[in-house]
Amino acid sequence: MERSRRYEHISGYSGLLAGAAALIGCTLLSCHLVPFDSRSNFVAVWAAVFVVAFAGHLVFTFGRARQRGEPVWSRQARTVLLAVLPNFGAALAVTVLVWRLGRVDRLPAVWLTLYGCGVLATSFFAPRSIAWLGGSCLALGAADLISQYSHPILMMGLGFGGAHIAFGGAVLAMEWRQARQRAFWKQVEHLAAVDE
Q: Can you list the alpha helix ranges (DSSP code H) found in the chain?
């Protein structure tokens, strides 16, 4: 019964892709490889990272649902979307405010904090590993917000890069372990049927 209420179309590959995109964005900004002014570079890089991560999530989610023969737009998917949307809306509003105040360096901390809250809101009906991702992002973002000095590239690298890669790896490891267990029990059932 718990399985029927859980949203299980989250792919570890989408976590790996999002994390890799964030680390590439951090590299581009820290090595000054984008040719515009600092504010334009910030917008261009993080907008591109978001688009890549979001598109990857959609592709892997659709693929996982199709592989399982389940609908993508299920009741669980709508519940997850409704849980995370307020945090994305708040992040957009605060982004506009922080941008107007000229404190772009604080945006990664704000994004991590609100993203962490949104992910934690989905953890009640998503795999348990999602709570670790949300808690990590929330802790990193909150720590950077209350810090006297901001560390925008480091926070993006740790939160959106490292945490997503760790999450993706954990999800894939769990899936591989479950697949091995299913294969083992299927073989046991086959051997038992042969003995009869």
A: 2-5, 12-30, 38-68, 75-100, 107-122, 129-146, 152-155, 163-195
